[in-house]
Amino acid sequence: MTSLTLVRRIRARPQVVFDAVTTAEGIAQWWGPDAGPVLVAEADPRVGGRYRVRFRRLDSSEHESSGEFLEFIRPERVVLSWRWKGGVPDPGESRVEITLRPVAEGTELTFIHSQLQDEEARRSHEGGWKGALDKLEAYFAAGNAA
Amino acid sequence: MVNFRGRLDRTFVALSDPTRRAILAQLERSNGASISDLAEPFTIRLPAVMKHLDVLATAGLVTRSKTGRTVTVRLRPQPMREAMEWLRRYERFWSSSLDRLTSYAESKEAQARRNGR
Predict the structure, then answer these.
(1) For chain B, what is the domain count?
(2) Which among A121, A144, B23, B47 is most buried, taking Cβ atoms within 10 Å?
(3) Residues in chain B whose Cβ is within 8 Å of chain A
(4) Domain that holds residue B14
(5) Between chain A and chain B, how many beta carbons pairs sit less than 8 Å apart?
(6) pLDDT for res B69
(7) Contact at 8 Å (CB) between A118 and B62?
């Protein structure tokens, strides 16, 4: 797994979505894997500007990620570098790309997180992980051991 | 987290071999099997099967229990669930974030419209 793509249709104009995605005020409202709070949201939304987000999960663990705005084209596209801080696994840098397209009901948002798990990806070639992962996927897809 | 990664490494190493995957597949279909049952479909010898079982047991993917002279091997799916969780981690993170982003942006849009902007 080296990249993840998600698509969402949002009933809001691209500029509204864009600001929600890129401003500290917006980020504080949505960032994180569960309903736990965002503790710190900082963003300097321009090319070369940095962002930092710290959040608490419902299991009360805290996590922080930060990076740089690599591309910033309001209200169409934003690209961020991404890095976890500290004790979370996968300390390498990855890339988050968000593209907004106006559609009849508002905005179609395409989200891509790429360059994930570079270290694991490299090792996967050595250890034959790829096949193992495919098997694993198939294993669970078939509803086994679930 | 180091322990977690160590466990993941062992899981993936264990799953990277076709014979070991075949053993797991066999165990999936049965509620426990003896070592000679497991060796039967393979052309490899018993000691080689034992070696594969060692790797699977180290990864926690199988358990072995001895009753008299018979060793029963059972599947233990927990490490595979963990490995799957690891794979799905980013997906969950972003999927949940984007759900909230969607409701937030939609409420901002509604607010802007009410204010006539």
Answers:
(1) 1
(2) B23
(3) 1, 4-5, 12-13, 15-17, 21, 28, 75, 77, 80-81, 83-84, 87, 90-98, 100-102, 104-106, 108-109, 112
(4) 2-77
(5) 104
(6) 87
(7) no
